[in-house]
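Many introductory courses stop at the sequence. We go one step further.
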Amino acid sequence: MNASARQGRWAKSPNFAEWPDRAEAIAAQTAIDKINYLESGQHEVRCRECGTCVLVRKHSLSHTSVQWQDDPDDVCPTFRESAATRGSSITPREGCPRLQASIDQAVLDGSLPVPHTFPA
């Protein structure tokens, strides 16, 4: 089969055009998944050094998701100091140790919950 024939038949996922009820159910579940995986369980944590506020979700003691509400180079002194030598704000980098300490303290204070997970 040549490339143009594949393009006409193949899709990463079906569009369910023939099954509008199924398409609607999938769209509804996708919206629920988005809330569950991207938005729920996030808690505001404010850096105890500079006051920068981020959204944090703990998946376990060793897994933390941080969502910056503003560009870290603009609001975090640690990131701002290293911005000139590092390059753009999307360049991979280590996190801010002061913010990490604030997140760790929030866990210890109980204001940032950590799900209880047990080995299988």
